Known about the structure:
The complex is a heterodimer. By secondary structure, chain A is of the alpha+beta class.
Amino acid sequence: MSDPLRRRFLSMVAGAAALVTSHAGYPKNQASKPRRFGMVIDLDRCVHCGACGIACSMENNVFPMGETSHPHARPIHWMDFLSSSTEASPLGEKPAPIPCMHCEEAPCVQICPVGATYRTPEGLVAQIWDRCIGCRACMVACPYSRRYYNFTNPTRPPGIATSPNPEVALRPAGVVEKCTFCHHRLRSTLLRRRLANELPRDEDFRQLPACAQACPAEAITFGDLNDPDSQVTQLARSPRSLRLLEHLGTKPKVIYLRGRA
Amino acid sequence: MPSGEEGQQRLQCVPQVIMKNLARREWLISTLGAVSACQGRRDPYAPSTDDSLAKSSVAGSVSRVRTICGACPAACGIEVRVCEGRARTIEGNPKADFNKGRVCPLGLVGVEGLYHPRRLPGPMRRIGPRGEATFQPISWDEAMTWLLRRLASLRALETPEELVLLEGHGSLTTSLLWSRFLSVYGSPNHLAMGPWSWAALARAEEEATRATSLPVEALQHANYVLAIGESSLETGPSWIPLVTAFSRAHRPIFGCASPRPPLSGPTPDEFFPIHPGSGGLFQLALAQVLVRMGVKPEPPIPPESLARFAPDRVANQIGLPARTIEGLALCLASQKSVTVLPDETHEAEFSARASSLLRQCLGKRTWSQNPVRTAFPNWPKVDCDSVAQLGGSKPRLDWQSDDARLKEGGVKIVEALVSGYPYKASIVLLSGEGVELNDEAFSTVPTVVSFSSFLTESSRWADLLLPNHHFLEAWDIHPMGRDVRLLGLSRPVVPPQNNSRSTGDVILDLAKGIGGSLSHALPWMRHEAAVKSLFSPEIIVKLEATGTWTVAPDEACLLPQTTPNPHYQRPQLTWKFSGAPLTYGTTAFPFLLVPARGWGDSMPDLKWIEEIPFTPGNPYIARLEIHPADAFPLGIRNGETVEVETPTFQATAHAFFRSGLRPGVVAMNRRPIQFSVCQARVRRSS
């Protein structure tokens, strides 16, 4: 082995050793207790402004549909709003934000024939855009209608030449898409903490998704439902909490708070 | 195209060829000369060479710039993510004490406004008939010469009062520069056309309380928030502190007096379905009860001034029983702290002043305290010449005029422009957003100049368009939420995208062009310099580092302040209101149609904001809000398609039942048809 090669080999070995050492020093995660991310939306605080929907669309490159589009298309809103004509409905009369419920027993995961939709170890219902074949079975299976099919390729609003967020891939025509709980932000936060050799804290997650960050009323809280001390867990225990279509057994991880007179 | 090798060879040859014919010293001298020549000929309005802007355009670069949102006058602190020289997204600045990282939908889509294809490309001059929006691009030099000639001729004729500025909401420093310009030019007509414009609030609040702040700080401690009109709750500039107050564990009681309950924003606990157009009268009736009952030992206004607004006398006009008005007045009087938010109407100053008077009658701000008022801005005084003194002594064209005929009926800018009484307006300048006049008023004015960045309903009547910068391209300083203890610096995040020019720069150029006392009054070369002259260099350095700065009590000495004025006297207010509220229509048009505003109504054609599923600003789906009791006799069901017909237009809309709506009133979004309150009839679509 020549000298330059030897030096390169040694440096690689040293680097690998350093990496292993650093990981050895990394505080042990609660391996026996995997994270289970969820969201709490306080409807008593919500002012129905739509900031969460706009922030979500801009963060995840969900472009407005505009006036001309495919006749069967409906506008895509990862964070949509559910209005009801009666105050007696579970979420009230005013438009309530509804993201993907990230169900623990997600029908969309079970029905996807190609495994494009799957559950991550953190409990998120994720999707690999490139693997989706556009069969739309997941759209039929989702009881919350939280999945959208791209009838066309993404079209930016006039004047917006580039994607607002280069960290999120665009979804082509023929692909189903939905809310990811801003998975890219989650991964980036976890990685940053890991590189700093620290455990992630609850404060890192509370306003992590774009919708939670933008909410002017601080009505949206995100966090680890398996962490008993996290704010989201404490809010989820509130007597005001409710889950949409709970009787279907999907175990949604988006919990609503409603009940103030 | 040369091949890769050829190109490289040529590149290598260039310095050798140059060096072959020139000595090293000569080459250096010529290079320096060329550089200095370029510097000398540099366009003063060329994009800034600020390092931060240059670095942000490097491939792969990502930066976050802290600045101030300019979408509304509240001026929240924001962080703009800039990738490769393009602004991408806007988030709240968590270090800004005013909004604490929160930002409203209008601020979130600021980037879309920056790169909007409908932004005017540069200065333009009208070439077709008035109002048909046919314009031709011209250079800035041509545009300035055109305007300067007209301004100079007014001064030469000694009629400077015929220059009228209609100001909507916009940049604070631009408003200050306009104020200084007009006072030295000789025009008293710095008129406010938006309820949140600086001029309206400054006058109303200053007259009543000697303070120019919004009722924002009062929100933090308010027990009762009374919004006149639903727009304050839906989209008002105090919106972020309003939402903060609403989402508190122990929130204040929210009341709203409007013909239409708000669809978004804080949900009111108490709703008073008043008659459209009677918000000001409603406040005066509340004030009358408070004064009559002696809530304050020293009432801010003589009781006889308000006698004609007694609830039993105006109940029919307001559309509420007198007992309800008296009950609310007593309820307000029993609260520890009350905040009244004025309505968003054309009657900007009237509404703001009525709210201000009501706050005074509630005694939450006293007249006798005579608070220390911050001298803002800290600009030296300038003497006016004889022409300016003569023009400045003329009555204003709005209701604040001393002229009894003008004063009688509230704000009468439109009537004054049309009738030419007490004098005609020769040049009307439209500055800021939200300036609206009717076609009749525009057609009577010989010269209209707009400073809007977009072609709006008003600017299409202009003879000259001088597009202003977007707030992400401009310099400005804002007291956030109008509180001088919270300062925010707005600075260019990206270079100017179009051939626009800051209105502040235009004002400075006009002053220099006219010369004389105007050039002394506005000595700054650029708007940036005027902005930075407002405060000491220490404060500017702080602001440039952090974007926002909360002035601590021990740092208050850094702010320019004046001492309390011992000679300050309470102004004598006389309130006259002769305008009758709008009446419900005839059998042909039985309904009163009011505009349902929303985030989409605030700025045109922002797709992200327009497509919020429930927003009234959606341009594709007209939605008619109607009371179920009005709909059933007509056979209309919720969600059905209906035809809306008014004396001026027809539209198709989807019926949307709202039980909180005042019966006899229907509301519709203003897009794509622009309209104000009018009579209408509704029928089921065939």
